[in-house]
Amino acid sequence: MSHSFTPKVVTANALLEGDVVYLTNDDRWTRSLKDAVLLMDEADADLRLLQAQAQTGVIVGAYLADMQDGPDGPEPTHFREAFRRKGPSNYAHGKQEQF
Amino acid sequence: MYAYNDFDKSFLASRNAQFRAQVERRIAGHLTEDEFKPLRLMNGVYLQLHAYMLRVAIPYGTLNSGQMNMLAHLADKYDKGYGHFTTRQNIQYNWPELRDIPDMLDELGTVEMHAIQTSGNTIRNVTADHFAGAAADEIADPRPVAELIRQWSTDHPEFQFLPRKFKVAVTGSESDRAVTRAHDIGLRMLERGGVAGFEIIVGGGLGRTPMLGKVIAEFLPREDLLPYLEAIVSVYNLLGRRDNKYKARIKITVHENGLDKIRDLVNERFVAIKARFNGIDQELFKGIEAAFAAPNFAVKPIETYEAAYKSDPVFRAWSDTNLHDHKADGYAIVTVSMKAHGATPGDASSAQMRVLADIATRFGHDELRISHEQNVILPHIHKSDLPEVHNILKANGLGTANIGLISDIIACPGMDYCALATARSIPIAQQIATRFDELKLEHEIGELKIKISGCINACGHHHVAHIGILGLDRAGVESYQITLGGDHTETATIGERAGPGFSADDIIPAIERLVATYIELRENDEEIFIQTYRRLGLAPFKAALYTDEKARANAA
Questions:
Q1: Partners of residue B473 in chain A, C-beta under 8 Å
Q2: Fewer CB within 10 A of the terminal residue: chain B, N end or C end?
Q3: Positive or negative CA dihedral for B408, B414, B415, B417?
Q4: Which of B210, B189, B200 has the alpha carbon at shortest distance from B230?
Q5: Range of the domain at A80
Q6: How many CB atoms lie within 10 A of CB B134?
């Protein structure tokens, strides 16, 4: 039996603004986690990450982040990704301003 | 204070132009991130969780009003209207865009400020006692020495790629307000038989392996300072471990090689280096020292202060906690709390920065200081002006009377901003301050230092707190570990770990139990928390944290 794979999204920061961004199914970058593509297959995830990392003129520091499938798209399984999705807790700055 | 000469100005302008070109090349795709990262770090630019962060040095914590106004201007123009004062006398902007940063640096240059070596494996911003030049217990103002070190270490060709970062702190007083024993090098000014010099402490540091510095030289004459520092850093540069990031700081080098061996190597290097110093550093030092001459202190009556102190209980409470003894008659050192209950420790809005700059201009000989405890100091306020200064502070949310008390908390940015953090710090600080304000207990509790770090790197100095809190990630949940009995002063001590961590929900009640235990066990109102802890040890506090909790759980 193959080991179970935790679904992933490719995430990074935008080169110019530093904003948290996620890879979409059609290889664009979105600011909104719900528009990200949830990668269910390990080989596919690794390939999408490699392709993303090559986009050095657009993003910085791409990596695969664990997610789960939710009613409204991918949802963080860890609090770090939850904060990246929302912004800091001491001011309503960051993504929570925009969404 | 020190004013840039033509060399400083042209050096900074060319450095900023160089960095602007590097940013342009990065954006144009001619530099990869791997190539760009060390360059941006040397200029104080980090990429954090939500955005870039620019860390600007406030050398030895000293600012004038023009500089403070510039910090406010940058906050408005390039950020979200505020800045965050750090535990190393820097200010951090949490939201700049990459393209704007070269403009920010140019604007900073107009007021003789920069972000050079606020990151990277270099000699970092030199910190000093925040009461420098004002404290009643001071032997000499440490800032001229700190400025000399800033000039020597800035762009020093031998020390741009050290094994790891390198931090230097200087104090000119018996009371150590600069945490010198938790620095790679700590300098304590001394005088022996009329000769000015230093006790040199080496190999201190917090982080994952906290260690107190050891005395490598009991007395070093002042004129030998730069060659001796150069000898220490060059020995470390060769001997420091580059194979393991976690063993790369000089504290490990000293620990693994032994202080005696390091001292021998340093002394050997010193002889060679000293011969190359031709006295130019001493000439420079004389000029720097003159620039830090004390202001002309006024001689005026202080009846208005005494009258306000008698008649106004709010002013009295603030005076009792936020003022310290000044060396000049009739003056006081004012610590402005950046820790209003429930606010983010160390954050200042642009409006608050302008108010502070204005007070410094009108009442404070144009001087401000930033403390490692994340507060702002007005070092020279005549007591007759204190009632008016206090009114202005109060009207702008800056009148909190809590210096040294339980709500005067050091907190690193934690996982609300920092990419390295393992848990949040700021909400814990906010909740502790809010809770003890509700209980109206903090003045009864008295002096109590709580310091919070959101990861093992210990930017929040939790190891040297009376009550230290370390935020960790335990299986995907924020968990807070308590250390007790730390001390950041001249009697520096690393705190002891109390036991297993607490969840974010349980940490505030745990702190309450510790404080209740202290109040119950203290001999009298005069005995502060750390004294009770030293008298009784960990056991009763550990019981309050764990045994009682278990007993309650079992009873329930």
A1: 79-80
A2: C
A3: positive
A4: B200
A5: 8-90
A6: 28
ipTM, 2 dp: 0.96
**Which tokens hold the place of B523?**
């001999």
pLDDT digit string, tens, across residues B289-339: 999 999 999 999 999 999 999 999 999 999 999 999 999 999 999 999 999
CA distances B385 to A17, B330, B331, Å, are 45, 10, 9
Looking at residue B554, its pLDDT comes to 60
- Residue A82, pLDDT score: 97
Partner-chain contact B47 A83, CB within 8 Å: no
Instruction: Give the separation between CA B146 and CA B59, rounded to whole angstroms.
Output: 8
Class of domain B303-395: alpha beta
Determine the Cα–Cα distance for residues A63 and A35; give it in Å rounded to an integer.
Answer: 17
The residues on B that touch A, with CB distances below 8 Å, are 26-27, 29, 32-33, 47-52, 80, 94-95, 97-99, 344, 347, 415-417, 424, 426-427, 430, 473, 476-478
CATH number of B142-291: 3.30.413.10
Q: What is the pTM of this model?
A: 0.96
List CB contacts of B506: < 8 A, sequence separation 6 or more: none
Query: What are the helix and strand counts (H, E) for chain B?
Result: 19, 21
Q: What homologous superfamily does CATH list for B410-555?
A: Sulfite Reductase Hemoprotein, domain 1 (3.30.413.10)
Does A71 contact chain B (CB < 8 Å)? no
